[in-house]
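Final report, closing paragraph on structural work. Over the funding period we assembled a curated collection of sequence-structure pairs, and we close with a single example.
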Amino acid sequence: MYVAVKGGAAAIESSWRLLEQQRRGDTDIAALSVAQIRAQLSLAVDRVMSEGSLYDPELAALAIKQASGDLLEAVFLLRAYRTTLPRLGYALPLDTARITLLRRISATFKEVPGGQLLGPTYDYTQRLLDFALLAEQDSSEPAPAAPEAPADSAPGSAAATPEPAAVVPRVNDLLAREGLLETPQPRDDATTGDLTREPLMFPADRALRLQALARGDEGWLLGMGYSTQRGYANSHPFAGEIRRGFVSVELVPDELGFAIDIGDLEVTECQMVNQFSGSRELPPQFTQGYGLAFGGSERKTMAMALVDRALRADELGEPRIAPAQDPEFVLSHADNVEASGFVQHLKLPHYVDFQAELELVRKLRASHAQAAPAAAGGASSFRHDQQEAA
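Its predicted structure, as stored:
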C-alpha cells in the first residue's frame, strides 16, 4: 500500500494548470472537439473502448481528449468511469453469424460462400507519408462525394457496396463438415465468470482467458502473438476468417421473458486456424484460436487469436515450451492499466524506502572494507607458504 505524500498542494495545483495548457496547445489553432476525435480517430477510439471494457464511442473520444492522446491513460479514465455505472442485466451471447458486414476476408479459401468483402483496410496502401493531407480543405467544407459504383460491378469488389446477406456462412464450417476442424462444445454445467467484477484467478478457463485478452494491451498481445510465429510455440496459423461489422445486442427482460434488440455494436472477429498433429484421444486436425474486440480492431483480434491458441496447450496435450503458452505469465502482464500503474508508481516519492536501502548498502560496504585487509593478508600468507614449499 502506497500512502499519498502530504504537502506540495500548491505545486500539484500548478501542475494541473500546466497540464491543461499542454492539452489545449496553441490557442491560435482551433480546439480539437470530441466529435472530431470520434469521427476521425475512430481506430484510436475503438482501441480505448476495447481495453476500457466499455462500448461508448463518445466517452472514449472524451477520454482521449482529456488524456492528450495518451491511449493508455484514456483506457484508465474509461475504466474508472465504468466502475460507477450500475449493472442493469446481462445480454445474450452475440450472434456474429448474423452481422451487417463492413469487411470480411479469408486467407484460407479464395472462393467462400457469401463472397469476400475487402472493405476499409490499410493492407494494400503504400506506407508513404501523404503530404496532401497537410493541405487538405478546411474541415468545415463537405467532403467530395464518392463516385457511384457502376451497375455491372461484381459483388464483393472494391467498387461495389452490395447489401450484405442476413447470415453469411462461416469459412471454418467448410473444414468442420469434413471433420478436419475441431468443434468445441460449450459447457452447460459452468457459469461464465465476469472479469470486470471478479479478480482473475488461476487456473483460468478459456472464457476468462478470452475476457482478459479482449481487454489486454494490444502491444503486449501483438508481441506474444509474434513470438508464436517465430518458433516460441507449436504454432502454424492461418487466418481462417476475419469479420468486421455491426451485430445486434439482445436482452431478455425479466418482465417480458423473451429477447428484445437493444442496439448494435461494431465489432471485429477473427478465427485463426492452426495445425494440430493429434494426440491419443484426438486425430490430426485443425484447431482454432479466437479473437473479438470492439470496432475496427483487426490487428488486436488477430494477435488475440494467436495467443488464445497458444494458451490452449494444456487442453490439447501439448508441452509448454514458450512464454506465450503460460497462462499466468501472459494474462498477469496483459492488463495495461495494471502494468502502467505499477511502472509509473516508481515516479512517486519513495524517500523512506530508499533511505533504508541506502543505509543497508553503507553497512555492507563498511563490512566489506573491514573484511578486505584480512582476506588480503590470508592470501599473502598462503602465497608465502607456497614459495617456501617450492
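The first helix runs from residue 9 to 24. The chain has two domains: 10-82, 99-120+154-183+196-343. We thank the funder for supporting this effort.
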